[in-house]
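Final report, closing paragraph on structural work. Over the funding period we assembled a curated collection of sequence-structure pairs, and we close with a single example.
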Amino acid sequence: MPSTLFEHLQDMHEHMAWADAVWFEAWGKSGFQDDEDLRQRMRHMADVQGAFLMVLNGGEVFGTDGPLPDYTELRRRTRANHEAYRAFFRDQDADGLGREVLIPWFPGPPCHVTVDEALTQVAMHTQHHRGQLMTRLKALGGKPLNVDYIIWAWKKRPEGRWA
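Its predicted structure, as stored:
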């Protein structure tokens, strides 16, 4: 059970990784892996997760233009993002949460937020779009799965199954 802000943020990101793995499980079983809307939204989600990682790690943010990735590539990118967030938390400490970072893709004035705010944004943004993805999957005739935080906590915080 998280007791500090650092532990709470880490918990949110562990839930995010589990929920994304469950999402890919539902999508993979649906037969709708080629749906362009699902692929577009999933690319956006993965790109934003990756862009925040670049910012948090002090790197330069670059775009991911090009053809729309397929299900397998989107799954690979998303899983890689979650592995990178785990590494970020391993290398981070609570004192670093107050460090200010610049989010360069917002138009002026410059968007400066703290690391804890950026980490919160990633988790909340991902949750928002994952809900849209599950809704779209249901509209197509697929079977969405419940990825609520409370379900994850009730199940004793399992890791995402990516296999």
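The beta strands are 100-103, 111-114. The mean pLDDT is 95. We thank the funder for supporting this effort.
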